[in-house]
Amino acid sequence: MNASALRPAAALDDPVGMRHAGRELLGVALMDARNHLLARLAQDESAAGCQRAVEAAWYQEHWLACHPQRNRGEACDDAAVRLAGVEPLAADWRAGHLQPTPEQVRGYLAATLDVTLDILAGTPEDDAALHFFRQSLLHEDRLCEAWDEARRLGQPASRPQRQALWMPAQTWALGSTPGGYVPLLERWAHPVDVPAFEIDAQPVNWAQYMEFAEDGGYDRAECWSAEGWAWVRAEGRRAPAHVEQLRGAVLLERGGAMQRAAAGQPVMHLTRHEADAWCRWAGRRLPTEPEWELAASRAGSRGFVWGDVFEWVAGRSRPWPGGGEAAPGALDHWPGTPAAVLRGGSFATRARWRHPKARRFVAASNDSTFCGFRSCAF
Asked: Could you tell me if 210 and 173 lie in one domain?
């Protein structure tokens, strides 16, 4: 079945509409996600590739076809006895105890999606009953995003430099309101007073970052936090991950080959330590979460560009008021120790999940994600 013939592409790419998607749109989106995943499997039939594909099918089957309480959504009993799945060896494939062939994986993907779509056709049109369909979609799309990150495929767009934007002081509802599918880390909206601030219209690019490196940024302790300087010395880092040259031009490894990055591309594979060091060197700072979210939500018409790379922000992982604990099957959890925060999405993130409220928590030393940053004036 041709998904594009059933639903305009614009609906599949709508990050607000997808969180409230009903049966029809969800069915098309689940087929679209599975086709997206199959395209990656065709390029990468390694053990790791097959395991990612199995994980997508297993999660969907585990929380939908095999779960008799699926219609209760987050109120379901995680310990409820599951029904048998279509593939007896799937759990062993997922755990890495057995290695399936690519043909077996494709058969499992086809069978699980067929069952999912049959169940979806008879599911009530309410948030609880559709919860695990929406969450399975996000899970599969994230797996494809991680697949691209692991293989370092693609690059963000190169953009001309724009002037920084001035945002007036205002009260902002930080986080998301109930209704539809709301990821754990966005719960719940609460008012925050945001003073006036100046913020870059787009992420810092390679031309700007090269100036920092050429000025000895990786050798100057005063540019780094204590934690960041300890990381630089321990790692012996001279450039962001996968960068082979950072003077005069940027050469980086993409998909197993060396490529020259355009000067106007946003930097990526950058740790928060490096983002913070550039800001210190430039006499600027990382935006706060309220500043970033406000600008991403309100300043698009004024030239605020985001979604090319995930972006580091100031502060540490913390729940919003009333956020609660992770529900069964949740894709995110509150970290046991404080972590750094990424906002937005990258060029590898499906457009339907590039939501201005989205957050992710990772270690400040993480450089595997397609992540960069922008800055604010003091």
From this structure: yes
CA-based nearest residue to 87, from 100, 78, 96? 100
Q: Which helix (H) or strand (E) holds 165?
A: strand 165-167
pLDDT tens track for 321-359:
999 999 999 999 999 999 999 999 999 999 999 999 999
Buried b vs exposed e over 211-242: b needs ≥16 C-beta within 10 Å? Answer: ebbeeebbeeeebbeeebbebbeeeebebbbe
Maximal CA-CA distance, the chain = 63
Three-state DSSP class for residue 277: helix
Range(s) of the domain holding residue 339: 165-373
* DSSP annotation string for 166-226: EE--EEEEESB-SSS---GGGB--EEEEE--EEE-SS--BHHHHHHHHHTTGGG-GGGS-H
Q: What region does 318 belong to: left with phi over 0, alpha with psi -120 to 50, or beta?
A: beta
Distance from CA of residue 76 to its chain's centroid? Answer: 26
Calpha distance 156→308 (Å, rounded): 5
Judge if 97 and 195 occupy the same domain: no
Number of domains, the chain = 2
**Bond preceding residue 188 cis, omega within 30 of 0:** yes
Please give the model's pTM, rounded to 2 decimal places: 0.96
Residue 126 within any structural domain of the chain: yes
Nearest Cα to Cα of residue 150 among 64, 51, 223: 51
Asked if residue 171 and residue 147 are part of one domain, the reply reads: no
DSSP state of 79: T
Q: Please state, in angstroms and rounded to a whole number, the distance separating the CA atoms of residues 339 and 316.
A: 6
- Asked if residue 159 is part of any domain, the answer here is no
CB-CB contact of 160 with 202 (8 Å): no
pLDDT in tens, 244-272: 999 889 999 998 899 999 999 999 999 99
